[in-house]
Amino acid sequence: MPSFDVLSEVDAQEVRNAVDQASREIANRYDFKGTDSSVELGDDSITLRTSSEDKLRALRQVLEEKLVKRKVSLKALTYGDVEDASGANVRQVVTLAAGISSEKARELNKFIKGLGLKGVQSQAQGDELRVTSKKRDDLQAVMTALREGDFGIPISFGNRRD
């Protein structure tokens, strides 16, 4: 029976490259000179540090530009609160979303059922969603509808089977 998996993930290498490019641009830009601005990549988060909230907005914009150039969806980013750091600096942690939460899986299931395609079934499996059908054309219709929908998470497809 043909099937595919709906995934929500980002390419870690592309994120690393975007953070490196943003760090290089920040080091060279005149408006960031002497502000101790930095962009640091953690395991599943990015930390932005700078001297003021205005600079933080500019830092966020530089990071987003680099991520978009690398084709990393901005839907995968969740911005935390702006915190005061030591030395009159501010810090913000940006979390990278990975996997489909149970609420999003339910929302996607409901959306797929609402398409009204006969014989299409979907079920959550951990942090991904498996969609099966007897007809490959129905699966392609589901993929198209999911690409066009806005669910607040980056959606990709994998593990296609015939």
Brief summary:
This protein has about 160 residues and is α+β, with helices and mostly antiparallel strands.
What is the number of strand segments?
A: 8
Provide a count of the helices: 4
Subunit organisation of the chains = single chain
Main β-sheet, in a few words?
A: 4 strands, antiparallel
Low-confidence stretches: none
Terminal Cα separation, in Å?
A: 6 Å
- Mean pLDDT score: 85
Q: Might you state the CATH topology name of the largest domain?
A: Alpha-Beta Plaits
CATH top level label of the largest domain: Alpha Beta
Protein name: Nucleotide-binding protein PO878_19610
GO molecular function: nucleotide binding
Pfam families: YajQ (PF04461)
InterPro entries: UPF0234-like_C (IPR035571), UPF0234_N (IPR035570), YajQ-like_sf (IPR036183), YajQ/Smlt4090-like (IPR007551)
Describe this structure in words.
With 162 residues, this protein is of the alpha+beta class. The chain folds into two domains: 3-8 and 99-161, 2-Layer Sandwich (Alpha-Beta Plaits), CATH 3.30.70.860; 12-96, Alpha-Beta Plaits (2-Layer Sandwich). The protein has helices spanning 12-28, 53-69, 102-114, 136-148; strands at 3-7, 38-41, 45-50, 77-85, 89-96, 121-125, 128-132, 156-161. The strands form two sheets. It has a four-stranded antiparallel beta sheet with strand order 6-7-1-8, covered by helices on one side. It has a four-stranded antiparallel beta sheet with strand order 2-3-5-4. It is elongated, with a radius of gyration of 20 Å. The mean pLDDT is 85.
